[in-house]
Amino acid sequence: MIAMWGGFIALVLLILALDLGVFNRTPKAPTVSAALGFAAATAVLALIFAGFLYQAYANHWAGLGLAADAVDNRLIDGRLAAVKFLTGYVVELSLSMDNVFVIALIFVHLRVPMAQQHRVLFWGVLGALVMRGTMIAGGTALVARYHWVLYAMGAFLVFTAAKMLLEKDEEEAPETSRLVRFLNKNLRVTQEFHGGKFRVAIDGKNWVTPLLVALLLVESTDLIFAVDSIPAVFAITTDAFLVFTSNVFAILCLRSLYFGLAHMLAKFRYLKTSLALILGLVGVKMLAADWSDAIFGDAVNFWMLGTVAVVLMTGAGASILADRRSQRR
To answer: Rounded to whole angstroms, how far apart are CA atoms 236 and 87?
Structure first.
């Protein structure tokens, strides 16, 4: 099992090394076509990895699939592993899309140069690996010991969905956040950027640059979104390897999608509604796991995957129609 985890982390580090060390060696703003191309490449890799999981769990490589999944009390065979991975990937990708807007807001308010935004997101992925890995490990241990935690997570997701639907949009400017105020109060922060440096020495004293402030804000934002998205994936599987790998592939894809879709997604006016419906759907599934399994049986994850896709496409279609109507007026 250690070899499987080590091999996956090595694969992710190789992807990031190629991205920063080969394709984006010099600081530059990625073009929309390049960003979408890299996002498409990560999606293809996710599909290939799903095929690998099929074989790994079918043949129980490194002991994978030998323990029953706490969600449905079934042993995870190759087919089920691939379906659960892809469902978790789509759910994580969907619920994290709102993060794109927040990252764009951070970069705009802090005036982070386009050429340096890629560097912030690169290191942000490494931080997300550690944070999400820790949260997933803790969540898996809790669920394995206390099954009622799944119901608590389901109730939390339903509550969060209702809150998203009812509350008004109130965006807090990043420079007024508690984290930024804390950094400005306790650290020496330069007024200007110094290329891609996070720290600089001025007159023999160490200073941090606004680029580090942006990185810490991105990391704290990812942590906040992970509080919602990780429990949602636990509704699909409690297998730590499937939860972690689906999360990581979604993060890699979203990081690239930022440069290609940050401005386009602003027209997705029903994104918040779509995400709230997905959260509510996943939360209800967790609360009514026995009922849903009795009705759908082994196909429950296929239905979940299809329903999430339909909700997203419906929200996108409704947003496009609403945008066209507003333009005609």
So the answer is: 7
| CA atoms within a 13 Å half-sphere pointing along the CA-CB vector of 250 | 29
- Provide the 3-class DSSP secondary structure of residue 204: coil
- Cα separation, 90 vs 306, in Å, equals 10
Structural domain containing residue 92? 2-328
Residue 323, pLDDT score:
82
Q: Give the pLDDT confidence score for residue 132 in this predicted structure.
A: 92
- pTM for this one? 0.88
The per-residue pLDDT for 174 is 64
Please report the pLDDT score of residue 172 as a whole number: 60
Decide: 95 and 225 in contact? Cβ < 8 Å.
yes
pLDDT at residue 176, as a whole number: 61
* Cα gap 248→230, rounded to integer Å: 11
Report pLDDT for 144: 85
3-state class (DSSP) for residue 199: strand
Indicate the pairing of strand 205-208 with strand 199-202.
antiparallel
CA-CA distance, 133 to 141, in Å (whole number)?
12
Q: Measure the CA–CA gap between 289 and 99, rounded to whole angstroms.
A: 28
Q: Which residue has the tokens 């934002």?
A: 221
What is 263-312 written as a DSSP string?
TGGGG-TTHHHHHHHHHHHHHHHHHTHHHHHHHHGGGHHHHHHHHHHHHH
Interatomic CA distance for residues 48 and 50, integer angstroms: 5
The total number of structural domains in the chain stands at: 1
Spatial contact of 289 and 71, defined as CB atoms under 8 Å apart: yes
pLDDT score for 300: 85
pLDDT score for 126: 87
Q: Which residues of the chain have a pLDDT value below 50?
A: none
Packing angle, helices 240-261 and 114-145, rounded to 10: 160
